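Exercise 7b. C-alpha cells:
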C-alpha cells in the first residue's frame, strides 16, 4: 500500500500521485498521513518508511518555525486566507539541507473540525524573495542569540525575568507581555511590560488557564484570538487586545512558566510565534542559570553563616597551604584578624588529615587541631578549638594524683610502722612507748580521715551535690566557736576576734559557714610556718555581713589570686607546695559559699605596704537583719 492509496477519491489520489511537487500531510499529532512519490524523490524517504510516524525532515533549529506555522493556521479567520507560504529548509535522507518554499494549509473535516495540515513543497534556488526571507530570518536569529547571551550573563532571577519580557517585546513587536510562573497549581505574574505595575504578583488557576490548555495539548506554543476568551489572568487589562500568544519554559525538563505576548494593534504571523517559542525555550535556560546561581549563593551564605557562628576556629587552605577563609572564632582564638591571616600560612602546625594535634600558642592558649581534605578541590579544612581549660584540668588531675599519693603515703607508712612495732615488740616496750605509738597511730588516722573527708567534699562539690539549708543563723556564735577551737592548736599563732557591736544574724547555712571559716583558719595557720597573729573580723556592710581572716604568712602571688579557688590548684608563691595538701580546701570553700548565695575572695593582708606579707580572705554573706 502506498501513501496516496489512503485517499479514497480516485481522482484526488491520482492528482496527488502524479503531482510534480512534493505533497506531505500530517495529522494533529504531526504523524505523516500523506507522502506522495514527488516527496520520495525530493527527500529520499519511501512512503512506507514515514507513514504513521513523526515528520522526519524538519531540522531541530526549524521546529519552532514549523510549530508556529501550524498554530497560526489554527487561528486564522476566514477572510485571512487559508494558506501560509514560507521559504525554509528541510532535510534530505542523506543529511543534506534543501532550500524549499512550503505552502501549508489546514485540513478540515466536513463539520469544520481540524484534521491536520498539508504542505506542498517547491524546490527553490535563485529566488530573490526566498533569499531575502532567509537573510531576514538569519538577522532575527542573530539578534535572538545576542539577547540569549545577555540573559545567560545575568544571574539575578528578577532581572532575568524582566529582560526576558523586554526581549519578547523587541523580537515579536508585541504591545505588551509578561512571564507567569507555575506554583503549586497556580500561575503568578512575576514579570510584565506594557501593563500596569500593580498587576505584578497577580495569580490565577493553572488548570483553567491558557497555560493549562497548552500543557494538556502536549505542544510548546499556543495562539488565541479574539474569537476565543482573552480574560485569562489579567490580560484583559490591555485595551484592544485581540491576540494572545504564549510559549512554555522548562526548567530541568519540568514546566517552570510561560511567556505571554499580547497584541492589541498589529497582526501576528508565524515568525512572531517562532521567535516566541525560541525565546521561551532559551528563557528556561537563563532562568535555570539564575536559579542555580541563587541556590549556590544561598548555600554559600548558609555555609558562611554556619562557619561564622561556629565556636570552633575554622580555616580553609588552598592547594598551596595558604589561608582562604578565616572565621570570627579563628580570630578570637588566635588574635589574628582575617586581613592578616588570609593569603598566609597557618600560624601553627597542621596535622595530617584525620589526625588530631594539641598545640600551644605563644599566648598560652592550647588548641586541639583537626584537618580534613576536600577531595574535589584539593582544599584543606582546619578546625581548631580552645582546650586550655581541659588541658589545665588534665594537668591538675595529674598533679592531684601525684599529690594525693604523697599525702596518703606518709600517714599510711607511719601507721604501718608503729602498728608493726607494737605487734612485734609489745613485750619489750614500756607503757609510755606503747601509749606514744598508739597516739601517733590515732593522730595519723585522723589525718587520713580529714584527707578522705576533703576528697568526698570535693567530689560532691564538683557534682553540685553540696546540700545547704538557707535560713537565718547566729554568725557571732559560729565565729566564736571556730576561733575558740583554733586558739588551742598553736602557741605560735594567736587568734584574735573582732566583731562589730550588734552584728545582725546572717542568712545562709550555719554548718557550711562553720566549715568555711575552719578551712580559712586552717590555711592561715598552715601557711604561716613562722607563726604570726591571725585576725578574724566581722562587720555589717549595707545588706551583707563581711568576715575577713588575715594572717602574717607567706602570702599569695597576685597571678594566682583568681586560681586558688579551683580544684587541685595551690599557689606557688613562697613555695606553698612544701606544706602539702591536694588543692581542694579553697575549692570546697568557694562552692559552699556560692551555695549560700555568698562571695569569697582573696588578697594581700596589707595592700600597698612594701615588704609586708600575709593573706586576707574575705567572706560575704547575706544579712537577715
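Sequence design result:
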Amino acid at each position: 500500500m502506498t501513501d496516496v492509496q489512503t485517499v479514497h477519491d480516485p481522482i484526488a489520489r491520482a492528482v496527488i500521485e502524479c503531482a510534480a511537487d512534493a505533497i506531505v500531510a500530517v495529522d494533529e499529532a504531526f504523524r505523516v498521513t500523506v507522502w506522495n512519490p514527488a516527496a520520495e524523490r525530493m527527500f529520499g524517504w519511501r512512503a512506507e518508511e514515514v507513514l504513521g510516524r513523526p515528520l522526519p525532515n524538519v531540522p531541530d533549529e526549524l521546529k519552532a518555525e514549523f510549530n508556529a506555522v501550524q498554530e497560526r493556521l489554527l487561528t486564522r479567520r476566514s477572510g485571512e486566507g487559508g494558506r501560509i507560504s514560507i521559504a525554509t529548509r528541510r532535510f534530505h535522507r542523506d543529511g543534506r539541507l534543501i532550500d524549499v518554499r512550503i505552502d501549508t494549509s489546514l485540513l478540515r473535516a466536513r463539520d469544520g473540525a481540524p484534521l491536520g495540515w498539508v504542505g506542498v513543497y517547491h524546490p527553490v534556488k535563485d529566488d530573490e524573495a526566498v533569499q531575502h526571507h532567509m537573510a531576514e530570518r538569519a538577522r532575527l536569529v542573530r539578534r535572538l542569540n545576542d539577547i540569549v547571551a545577555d540573559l545567560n550573563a545575568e544571574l539575578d532571577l528578577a532581572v532575568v525575568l524582566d529582560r526576558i519580557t523586554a526581549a519578547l517585546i523587541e523580537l515579536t513587536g508585541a504591545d505588551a507581555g509578561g512571564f507567569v510562573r507555575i506554583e503549586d497549581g497556580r500561575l503568578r505574574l512575576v514579570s510584565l511590560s506594557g501593563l500596569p505595575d500593580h498587576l505584578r504578583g497577580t495569580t490565577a488557576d493553572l488548570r483553567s488557564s491558557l497555560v493549562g490548555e497548552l500543557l494538556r495539548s502536549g505542544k510548546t506554543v499556543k495562539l488565541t484570538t479574539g474569537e476565543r476568551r482573552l480574560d485569562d489572568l489579567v490580560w484583559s487589562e490591555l485595551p484592544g487586545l485581540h491576540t494572545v500568544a504564549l510559549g512554555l519554559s522548562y526548567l530541568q525538563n519540568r514546566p517552570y512558566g510561560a511567556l505571554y505576548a499580547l497584541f492589541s494593534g498589529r497582526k501576528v504571523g508565524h515568525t512572531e510565534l517562532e521567535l516566541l517559542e525560541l525565546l521561551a525555550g532559551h528563557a528556561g535556560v537563563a532562568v535555570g542559570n539564575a536559579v542555580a546561581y541563587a541556590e549556590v549563593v544561598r548555600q554559600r551564605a548558609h555555609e558562611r553563616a554556619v562557619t561564622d557562628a561556629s565556636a570552633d576556629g575554622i580555616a580553609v587552605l588552598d592547594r598551596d597551604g595558604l589561608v582562604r577563609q578565616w572565621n570570627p572564632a579563628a580570630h578570637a582564638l588566635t588574635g589574628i584578624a582575617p586581613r592578616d591571616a588570609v593569603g598566609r600560612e597557618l600560624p601553627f602546625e597542621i596535622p595530617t588529615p584525620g589526625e588530631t594535634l594539641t598545640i600551644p600558642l605563644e599566648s598560652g592558649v592550647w588548641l586541639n587541631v583537626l584537618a580534613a581534605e576536600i577531595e574535589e578541590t584539593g582544599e584543606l579544612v582546619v578546625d581548631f578549638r580552645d582546650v586550655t581549660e581541659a588541658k589545665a584540668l588534665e594537668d591538675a588531675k595529674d598533679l592531684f594524683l601525684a599529690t594525693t599519693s604523697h599525702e596518703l603515703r606518709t600517714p599510711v607508712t607511719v601507721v604501718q610502722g608503729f602498728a608493726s612495732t607494737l605487734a612485734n615488740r609489745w613485750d619489750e616496750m614500756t607503757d609510755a612507748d606503747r601509749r606514744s605509738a598508739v597516739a601517733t597511730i590515732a593522730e595519723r588516722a585522723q589525718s587520713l580521715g580529714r584527707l578522705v573527708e576533703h576528697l568526698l567534699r570535693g567530689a560532691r562539690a564538683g557534682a553540685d551535690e553540696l546540700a545547704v539549708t538557707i535560713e537565718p543563723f547566729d554568725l557571732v556564735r559560729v565565729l566564736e566557736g571556730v576561733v575558740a577551737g583554733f586558739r588551742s592548736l598553736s602557741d605560735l599563732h594567736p587568734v584574735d576576734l573582732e566583731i562589730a557591736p550588734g552584728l545582725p544574724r546572717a542568712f545562709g547555712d550555719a554548718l557550711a559557714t562553720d566549715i568555711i571559716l575552719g578551712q580559712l583558719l586552717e590555711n592561715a595557720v598552715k601557711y604561716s610556718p613562722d607563726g604570726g597573729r591571725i585576725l578574724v573580723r566581722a562587720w555589717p556592710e549595707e545588706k551583707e555581713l563581711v568576715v575577713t581572716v588575715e594572717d602574717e604568712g607567706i602570702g599569695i602571688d597576685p597571678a594566682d589570686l583568681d586560681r586558688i579557688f579551683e580544684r587541685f590548684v595551690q599557689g606557688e608563691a613562697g613555695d606553698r607546695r612544701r606544706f602539702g595538701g591536694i588543692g581542694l580546701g579553697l575549692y570546697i570553700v568557694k562552692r559552699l559559699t556560692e551555695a549560700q548565695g555568698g562571695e569569697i575572695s582573696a588578697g594581700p593582708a596589707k595592700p600597698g605596704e612594701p615588704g609586708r606579707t600575709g593573706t586576707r580572705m574575705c567572706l560575704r554573706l547575706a544579712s537577715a537583719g
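Instructor comment: The chain has 15 helices and 23 strands. Confidence is low (pLDDT under 50) at residues 1-5, 572-582.
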